[in-house]
Design brief:
single chain; alpha/beta; Rossmann fold; 5-stranded parallel beta sheet; 47% helix; elongated
Length: 469
């Protein structure tokens, strides 16, 4: 294939300013360097030339390079070795390997070393143009991801909480103030908001950090076993007690006991827990004497304890004993600006360097997240399994795609990009029902209407659907 002339390259429309790349061409052939430079400048990119590996690394150390077009055979070294050195210097730089010998072994080796693409000589500039467009997008995503990782580390700070929202900053500040004390603390928030993360941060920043952090889900232990689980028991205390058990409270000796879902604790156990906290001692089941305990208690709940107290489900004296300090963890829907940071954090936790397309990030930021951060974690992990290098909208759960009004969602436009109010209402209702698993009562509350109104609107929607079909 004959190579295009520089004049031909310049006839191609230039890219927008934000799409320009700073490209380093590394090849010992002056003709190829100049030909590539003519093509690149004609496409609106800037180009720097290097004839050797040492000259290339000097350039990378002194210039902001986006993409390297790299020949495998260089006068002072192997191109693959230089590729590894480039990626070690800056992993976001995209490297496109050029070679005259298109072997599978070379291609595999190049990709293993981190090459973005592999092209053969003579260069097909149409294919190279496509490679450069992909490299531009990948470079941009890699740079954004690295920036987000830095923001995550800065945002998390010493508390471990990820988020820049005012509510999260206030929570982090309160944790720093509360942690050094030995006071009990009550954490309030919906399921999946990260209440245990807050509890662990309090423990980690306290003087009890060398002690154990013992989490207990009060709603997951059978009522007839919870006393034994918390206080322990002596041998023979009841049928099946073949050996003595220390109990979770004593396991937390010198550390922190985290009582999650404290609102689900049975009333009889609430009395005994209050006594243990007041006296700083526990009586194991079947024992005739108390055992001293030195613990800090942090409790959490997703229910309204005031309502529980009014209904006789939770003791006031225990509430006031636990509620010395209170931290409220906001739901994710109230801090959607933190979603890019959280996504970057989740990807880092899973050792994933995948990027997220702008459309996918928009879908994530638009979702109401009834399951909060836990739902976001599951969504991102699922997308990582389905995606190769970049997470796109199609890698997200179908309900998120439909809620955005993507093709197939039935969202009608009447002209000039205007969507009828009735259609917006219909989409909002579908979105709410999808978010809350079809629960109409919760959907109505989320939409700010009563249940009767929602039923009436659904009946009208059903009639509209039938008439349209």
């Amino acid at each position: 294939m004959s190579q295009s002339t520089e004049a031909d390259h310049q006839a191609v429309p230039k890219l927008a300013e934000e799409s320009r790349l700073n490209v380093l061409v590394v090849d010992d052939s002056r003709l190829l360097r100049e030909t590539c430079a003519g093509f690149l400048t004609g496409r609106g990119h800037s180009c720097i030339r290097a004839a050797s590996a040492s000259e290339a690394m000097r350039t990378i150390d002194s210039e902001a390079i986006d993409v390297v077009l790299l020949d495998i055979g260089l006068p002072d070294g192997n191109g693959l070795d230089l590729l590894a050195e480039i990626k070690a210097s800056d992993e976001t730089i995209q490297v496109i390997i050029m070679t005259a010998t298109a072997t599978i072994e070379n291609a595999v080796a190049a990709m293993r070393h981190g090459a973005a693409d592999f092209v053969t000589k003579p260069i097909d500039f149409d294919l190279l143009d496509k490679s450069l467009r992909i490299a531009l997008r990948t470079r941009r995503l890699a740079t954004e991801n690295r920036s987000l990782r830095g923001q995550v580390a800065q945002s998390a700070g010493i508390t471990g909480l990820v988020g820049e929202a005012d509510a999260m900053r206030a929570a982090a500040d309160l944790i720093r103030r509360i942690a050094p004390s030995n006071e009990t603390c009550l954490i309030l928030g919906e399921n999946g908001t990260g209440k245990e993360v807050v509890a662990r941060a309090i423990h980690r920043l306290s003087e009890r950090v060398d002690g154990s952090f013992v989490p207990v889900n009060c709603g997951a232990i059978a009522e007839n076993l919870i006393e034994s689980e918390l206080f322990g028991h002596v041998r023979g205390a009841f049928s099946g007690a073949d050996a003595a058990r220390k109990g979770l409270i004593r396991q937390a000796q010198g550390g922190t006991l985290f009582l999650d879902e404290i609102g689900d604790m049975p009333l009889p156990m609430q009395v005994k827990l209050l006594r243990a906290l007041e006296n700083r001692e526990v009586v194991p089941v079947g024992a005739d004497h108390a055992v001293p305990c030195d613990i800090r208690v942090v409790a959490a709940t997703n229910v309204d304890l005031h309502e529980h107290m009014a209904q006789g489900k939770f003791r006031e004296d225990l509430y006031y004993r636990l509620n010395v300090m209170t931290i409220v963890v906001p739901p994710l829907r109230e801090r959607t600006g933190d979603i890019p940071l959280l996504v970057a954090h989740i990807l880092a936790e899973n050792d994933s360097r995948r990027g997220v397309s702008p459309e996918a990030m928009d879908a994530l930021e638009s979702w109401p997240w009834p399951g909060n951060v836990r739902e976001l974690q599951n969504t991102v992990r699922r997308a990582c399994v389905l995606a190769d290098d970049e997470i796109h909208v199609e890698h997200l759960p179908p309900r998120m795609v439909e809620a955005r009004g993507e093709p197939g969602s039935g969202c009608r436009v009447i002209g000039n990009g205007v969507i009828p109010l009735s259609e917006l209402e219909r989409q909002a209702i579908k979105h709410a029902l999808a978010a809350f698993g079809g629960d109409r009562a919760r959907s109505a509350r989320a939409l700010g209407i009563d249940r009767t109104t929602l039923y009436r609107k659904l009946q009208r929607m059903d009639g509209t659907t039938e008439s349209e079909s």
